[in-house]
């Protein structure tokens, strides 16, 4: 399939009473919208309308389209719950998925989205710890970008009373990723130092906050200059402007021996730099390849540069340098018990006031292109949220004041740098 080709709509057997628009793809497994197994036959016959963001093909922002699914209600399977989604989290994985660079996402047409929050509307058999009306955080490998979603009950987590739906949607992917890397892989301890790239992004802010829960941890954070005040207030000890300065040189000036932990979402030459920055017994964790994403569409040049400059090691080199290299990808994490435990820890930290998601901006489904563009252009400070409910006339996007202070000159400079990289 070419970068601009849309996937043809798949033909699927229609159940009685089910309708779809001509260009609508069949709902993905987690995107179905049944009701409770205890519903009456009349309720089950009532058609259900559901707004969803569907990736129709690989390419630019126009490939993500708002569609309305209309289908008959069906019975929930045992262990499932139906959630009315109130907010969804946008992640860099969706930007990569739109370009065909995210393997865990099925081929188009598919409803994207891995995290959200909402209210339980129905429960299936054998579900004992969820009730209709519960406010929950929900996770799925895909299919969350829609108004109603069916997920296994054990992939939902009760929200603290003081937590907003926007905060609930901002917790799972970013904070689980940061938590697993820092505490399960790198074993961060008092007195250690950590380099956090993209420190103003969702994972960057989560990692910084989690580092604050350990005494005397030094955080080096890369971000554009307009974001330094904000990330410094959030716990970054040494903000570094990656656009105008060599972050390796800046770190060496402060810490000649380097750092203990590097969290690398960039890939390519930055992975090599991160490895060289490690102190003996240090740990490099690669969890992304943001350097592959430059323009709106897939760039073969950027992919080739990232591949050509990737870190190449052998076991002898690791032995001689006394360093560790790890990789982390939440989408391939199959240890449900580990995820459950980490989520419980994170929600408890939230209740204690030790972590709190920073919401950069909220966009309605109709504005998904603007939301993706904001994240792609690195204008966000914190989490970008998508709202399933229709946008009201005259309603404007809510953004944090600091996130909107970027000048046109800074944005242009970042765009030039992305093309060079």
Automatic annotation (TrEMBL):
Molecular function terms from GO: oxidoreductase activity
Superkingdom, natural source: Eukaryota
UniProt keyword list: Oxidoreductase
Basic and acidic residues: compositionally biased ranges: 389-421
Keyword NADP: no
Pfam families for this protein: ADH_N, ADH_zinc_N_2
Residue ranges of the region described as Disordered: 1-46, 387-421
GO cellular component terms, semicolon-separated: mitochondrial outer membrane
Enoyl reductase (ER) domain residues: 59-386
Composition bias type Low complexity, residue spans: 8-19, 33-42
Record GO biological process: negative regulation of mitochondrial fusion
Name under which the protein is recorded: Synaptic vesicle membrane protein VAT-1-like
Organism: Scophthalmus maximus (Turbot)
Species classification: Eukaryota, Metazoa, Chordata, Craniata, Vertebrata
């Amino acid at each position: 399939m070419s970068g601009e080709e849309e996937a043809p709509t798949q033909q699927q057997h229609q159940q009685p009473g089910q309708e779809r628009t001509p260009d609508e793809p069949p709902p993905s497994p987690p995107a179905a919208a049944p009701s409770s197994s205890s519903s009456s036959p009349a309720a089950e016959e009532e058609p259900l309308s559901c707004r969803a963001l569907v990736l129709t093909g690989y390419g630019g922002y126009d490939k993500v389209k708002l569609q309305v699914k209309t289908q008959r209600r069906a019975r929930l399977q045992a262990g499932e719950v139906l959630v009315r989604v109130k907010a969804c989290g946008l992640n860099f994985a969706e930007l990569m998925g739109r370009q065909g660079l995210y393997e865990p996402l099925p081929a188009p047409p598919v409803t994207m989205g891995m995290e959200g929050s909402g209210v339980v509307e129905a429960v299936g058999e054998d579900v004992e710890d969820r009730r209709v009306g519960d406010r929950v955080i929900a996770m799925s490998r895909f299919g969350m970008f829609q108004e109603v979603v069916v997920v296994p009950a054990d992939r939902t987590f009760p929200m603290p009373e003081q937590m907003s739906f926007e905060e609930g949607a901002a917790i799972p992917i970013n904070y689980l990723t940061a938590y697993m890397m820092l505490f399960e892989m790198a074993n961060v301890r008092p007195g250690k130092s950590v380099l956090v790239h993209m420190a103003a992004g969702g994972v960057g802010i989560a990692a910084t906050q989690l580092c604050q829960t350990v005494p005397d941890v030094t955080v080096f954070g890369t971000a554009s200059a307009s974001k330094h005040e904000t990330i410094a207030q959030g716990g970054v000890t040494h903000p570094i402007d990656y656009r105008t300065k060599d972050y390796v040189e800046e770190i060496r000036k402060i810490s000649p021996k380097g750092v203990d932990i590097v969290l690398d979402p960039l890939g390519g030459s930055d992975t090599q730099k991160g490895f060289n920055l490690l102190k003996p017994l240090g740990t490099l964790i690669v969890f992304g390849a943001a350097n592959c994403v430059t323009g709106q569409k897939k760039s073969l040049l950027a992919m080739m540069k990232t591949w050509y400059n990737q870190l190449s090691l052998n076991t002898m080199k690791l032995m001689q340098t006394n360093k560790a290299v790890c990789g982390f990808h939440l989408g391939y994490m199959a240890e449900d018990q580990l995820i459950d435990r980490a989520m419980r820890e994170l929600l408890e930290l939230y209740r204690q006031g030790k972590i709190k998601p920073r919401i950069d901006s909220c966009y309605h489904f109709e504005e998904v292109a603007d939301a993706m563009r904001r994240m792609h252009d690195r204008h966000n400070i914190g989490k970008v949220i998508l709202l399933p409910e229709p946008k009201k006339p005259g309603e404007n996007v809510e953004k944090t004041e600091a996130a909107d202070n970027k000048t046109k000159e800074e944005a242009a400079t970042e765009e030039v740098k992305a093309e060079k990289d």
